[in-house]
Prior knowledge:
This protein is 0% helix and 53% strand.
Amino acid sequence: xxxxxxxxxxxxxxxxxxxxxxxxxxxxxxxxxxxxxxxxxxxxxxxxxxxxxxxxxxxxxxxxxxxxxxxxxxxxxxxxxxxxxxxxxxxxxxxxxxxxxxxxxxxxxxxxxxxxxxxxxxxxxxxxxxxxxxxxxxxxxxxxxxxxxxxxxxxxxxxxxxxxxxxxxxx
Length: 171
């Protein structure tokens, strides 16, 4: 059975442009990030931009999303960050946050790094504004020792946003 161990957590007490998990030990098989996020100023739907080891090249993603009436897909290649889900922006219902889970298997092995993303943008209505499911790749064989999350449209994460990094050990 897999065992989840909390490596690090960060609940923001003020708006912040990025969150970094550093000095990630190589003692786990996989990593999981769980986050509850809102931006502080943007009126455009932003996305979580994720980089590994401060590296800004070699990322790609393929995702499917729905908004209650439409389903679509998109692909990104040769981008500067890993695309990790859409976030709740400041013009949506007060005190609503998007939910994210990012799963990174085999993060310490000498192979390209894949990840999966699930995110839901909440608006406190009868349906979610967006539901995103997808995955990505970082074409780099270096072990992941740090992960930075930011918003691709450059506003800050709002106060109250929370981020949790777990290590997974397979027993």
